[in-house]
């Protein structure tokens, strides 16, 4: 009997895994770049404006260079504007503010709840089927993240702005989930990822500039190498490259599976914090990582379809049936 072909071609499977790993690596390290910007004299609105303004310019230039169509109808522009303002403007303003009150690890925990939000939004607005294996994988992942940060959660206090930081982070996560769902919807309607990101980040930049003017926020810039280095990394790598990879992944494997990367990248952030923040590993950390990896297997594993049994018949019987 010939082997049963997989429902997912090997080349596509490897491409999906490569995109997935790229997203985890970039966003897992982006917390370092974000910390380089938060805490300076530059207001949050300004930092987010510079980040996505630069990202939009780079993406528009890339689209023009590659001949990617940038002309869309009015309704498509509405959809891209909504995605951009939610996913690139409001989301990041809220998370930058959250980083002023909470450590990066705790913010990562809160953002990982986007997996559950995406499962719900995908079922409500995209007609996605709630796969039991994906739901279980997400549950194991979130449990693992919670176990990893048990020491941090035990010492959590609602004093010193912590409650405000949690509110910022959860609100930002809701905006991110809505923006990711809109991205999946836009891709279903034939709008390419690069063009969508270019227009979305452009609209986000315009919205942020309006917010700066309306709120009377002074435009400031930090010329230190630390701030500029963080800005370039967040604009070019974390925004342009990672969002292109992530939203492409959303279109290929679905919002639920793609969003599990948001459970994995806090683990990488934790590993990096061993060197940047002097994080001390505990048994909870190792147990939590094991749960996250097990959840990752459940989410990403796609069983091969079971082949129907081949019934062999002799020529005489076949002729009689004819």
TrEMBL record:
Alphabetical list of InterPro entries matching this protein: AA-Vitamin_Transporters (IPR050638), EamA_dom (IPR000620), EmrE-like (IPR037185)
Subcellular location as annotated: Membrane
Domain EamA residues, every copy: 21-149, 164-300
Keyword Mitochondrion set for record: no
Organism (species): Insolitispirillum peregrinum
Keywords of the record: Membrane, Transmembrane, Transmembrane helix
A cellular-component GO term for this protein: membrane
Membrane topology of this protein: Multi-pass membrane protein
Family in the record: Belongs to the EamA transporter family.
Name assigned to this protein: Permease of the drug/metabolite transporter (DMT) superfamily
Keyword Lyase among record annotations: no
Transmembrane segments: 48-65, 77-95, 101-127, 134-153, 165-184, 196-219, 225-246, 258-275, 281-301
């Amino acid at each position: 009997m010939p082997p049963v072909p997989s429902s997912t071609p090997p080349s596509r499977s490897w491409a999906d895994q490569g995109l997935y790993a790229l997203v985890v690596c970039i966003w897992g390290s982006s917390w370092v770049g974000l910390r380089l910007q938060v805490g300076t004299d530059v207001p949050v609105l300004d930092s987010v404006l510079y980040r996505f303004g630069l990202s939009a310019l780079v993406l528009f230039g890339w689209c023009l260079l590659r001949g990617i169509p940038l002309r869309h109808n009015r309704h498509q522009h509405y959809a891209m504007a909504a995605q951009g303002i939610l996913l690139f403007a409001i989301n990041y303003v809220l998370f930058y503010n959250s980083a002023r009150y909470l450590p990066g690890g705790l913010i990562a925990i809160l953002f990982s709840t986007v997996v559950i939000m995406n499962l719900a939004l995908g079922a409500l607005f995209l007609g996605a089927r709630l796969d039991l294996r994906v739901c279980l994988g997400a549950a194991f992942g979130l449990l693992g993240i919670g176990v990893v940060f048990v020491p941090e959660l035990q010492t959590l206090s609602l004093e010193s702005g912590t409650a405000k930081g949690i509110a910022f982070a959860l609100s930002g996560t809701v905006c991110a989930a809505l923006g990711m769902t809109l991205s999946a919807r836009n891709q279903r309607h034939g709008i390419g990822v690069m063009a969508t990101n270019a227009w979305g980040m452009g609209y986000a930049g315009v919205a942020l500039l309006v917010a700066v003017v309306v709120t009377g926020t002074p435009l400031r810039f930090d010329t230190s190498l630390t701030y500029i280095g963080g800005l370039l990394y967040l604009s070019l790598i974390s925004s342009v490259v990672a969002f292109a990879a992530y939203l492409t992944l959303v279109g290929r494997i679905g919002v639920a599976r793609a969003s599990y990367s948001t459970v994995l990248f806090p683990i990488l952030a934790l590993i990096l914090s061993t060197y940047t923040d002097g994080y001390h590993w505990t048994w909870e950390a190792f147990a939590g990582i094991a749960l996250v990896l097990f959840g990752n297997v459940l989410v990403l594993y796609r069983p091969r379809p079971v082949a129907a049994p081949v019934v062999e018949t002799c020529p005489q019987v076949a002729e009689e049936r004819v």
